[in-house]
Each structure stands twice: as structure tokens, then as C-alpha cells.
């Protein structure tokens, strides 16, 4: 997809605030600091549209982005950040669960994992949660620029095996630094629209 327009439409914490349109939607999921917001910026060719931080926990709300007036991306706060209270963690869980289990416009979840390391227990749990609700997943194995190209396939295999990846789900080697995987990611997302 050639992105000609993109803008944030709302930062939501509850369903009443979700945009009331029937546009197809893709929501990000992944560990805190894994690169969800960076993925969105790269896909949209926008440097600072989705907020990025060197500190984990930057994204706190469900941030809806409207693209070419035809679809939404939803940036989602990450999991696995140690420095959050039990109360915050419970609020996060409720917000994520409500969104993923009720949003009819959701075409697929985009689960971001770090290609360098095997998926964490939280990653596996997130993937199992999405599969439990029959939500199609596109796995983005990001930060590929940080390991040599010759090792990508080996790491990809570990990622697939650790997640016990469903045969119907796609997995893409990605880098928000170099743009590796961007065209492939767009063509797969378009196939879900
Ligand atoms: N080298 C490299 N760094 C990346 C890549 N993607 C993200 N980063 C860096 O990783 C850090 C976290 O990126 P974010 O996009 O803010 O991560 P996030 O998943 O949105 O984090 P939260 O909002 O805290 O959940 C930043 O310092 C990014 O510059 C990548 O593909 N390659
Ligand atoms: Mg973020």
C-alpha cells in the first residue's frame, strides 16, 4: 500500500471512545519496548507519529491511526514491563482483553517479537490468547538489523517453534531501521482487508 495520509484519531481507554467506523483495523501486540510504535512509524513513513521511547512503557492508551482514510492501525501498550503496579497491570489486562475480544473491525493482530531472542513466556501467552479467540495473527520478527542476515532463518525457526505457530499465520523478518519486510508486511495486511 502506498501511504498518502496518516493521522492519529484518538487515544482511547474504553470502547465508547473507539472510532465508530466500519473500517478494517489491525492492532499491535507485543512486549514493552519491542518496537510496536516503531513498526507503525515505518509502515506509515512517519518519523514521530507513534511515540517511541528508550524507556519501556511509552504507549499507555489504545492509539488509533487512520491510514489513507481506509484502515486503522491501533498502537497498544506493551506487556512484560516489570516496573508497573499490580493495579496498573490489571487495568492493562482489562483494556487489552476488552479490545481484542469485542472489536468487530479487527482483521488481524500484529504480534511483534524480537528476532534476536526466542519469544518470552509472555509472548507465548499473548499468542495463545489471540488464538483462543480465533484472531488471525501476523508475526513481525523485528530488530533484524541487529543480527547478521545469515542468522535470520535460524532465529526465525526458533521463533516459529517457540510460539507453536499456526500454519495459517504469517511471519515476517522486519526492521524499523532498514525497512526490511515492510512491503511484505503491507501485502499480507492488505490480504486481510
Ligand atoms: N535497531 C533497531 N531498533 C529498534 C527497532 N524497532 C524499535 N527499535 C528501538 O527499540 C526501542 C523501543 O521502540 P518502541 O517502538 O518505542 O517500542 P514499543 O513496543 O512501542 O514500546 P512500548 O510503547 O513501551 O510498549 C526504541 O529505542 C527504538 O528505536 C528496529 O527494528 N531496529
Ligand atoms: Mg509504543
Automatic annotation (TrEMBL):
It comes from the Bacteria. GO terms for molecular function: GTP binding; metal ion binding. Keywords: Cell cycle, Cell division, GTP-binding, Magnesium, Metal-binding, Nucleotide-binding, Septation. The keyword Protein biosynthesis does not apply. GO terms for cellular component: cytosol. InterPro entries: G_ENGB_dom, GTP-bd, GTP-bd_ribosome_bio_YsxC, P-loop_NTPase. GO terms for biological process: division septum assembly. Residues 22-193 form the EngB-type G domain. Its cofactor is Mg(2+). Necessary for normal cell division and for the maintenance of normal septation. Belongs to the TRAFAC class TrmE-Era-EngA-EngB-Septin-like GTPase superfamily. EngB GTPase family. This is Probable GTP-binding protein EngB. It comes from Neobacillus vireti LMG 21834. The gene is engB.
